[in-house]
Design brief:
Elements: H1 15-37, H2 41-55, H3 73-86
Helix pairs in contact: 1-2, 1-3, 2-3
Length: 91
């Protein structure tokens, strides 16, 4: 007897890119929130870098728990700079 809930869905070939894109979008939203709360760009960058470092702690060189290059400290600084350049307003 087969049970459909026991069948595994194969992983997506672009799954890691999709996860990195979602994480980058979330960081941009958080940077906008920090802008509206009055954080400096430098403080927002530090906080978001620390958050991503915590999320991928302990660091790994291989596997799913490896911090993607698109979420490096330099990439996060660019995301924050772009968000602050847009000067996100209220609603």
């Amino acid at each position: 007897m087969s049970f459909e809930w026991m069948e595994c869905t194969p992983p997506r070939t672009n799954g890691s890119k999709l996860r990195a894109d979602v994480s980058a979008a979330e960081l941009a939203h958080r940077a906008g929130t920090m802008f509206r709360l009055g954080f400096s760009q430098e403080d927002a960058t530090k906080r978001l870098c620390a958050r991503v470092a915590w999320e991928f702690d302990p660091p790994s060189k291989t596997g799913c728990h490896r911090r993607p290059d698109s979420l490096s400290d330099q990439a996060i600084a660019k995301i924050v700079a772009d968000a602050y350049a847009r000067r996100p307003g209220g609603w």
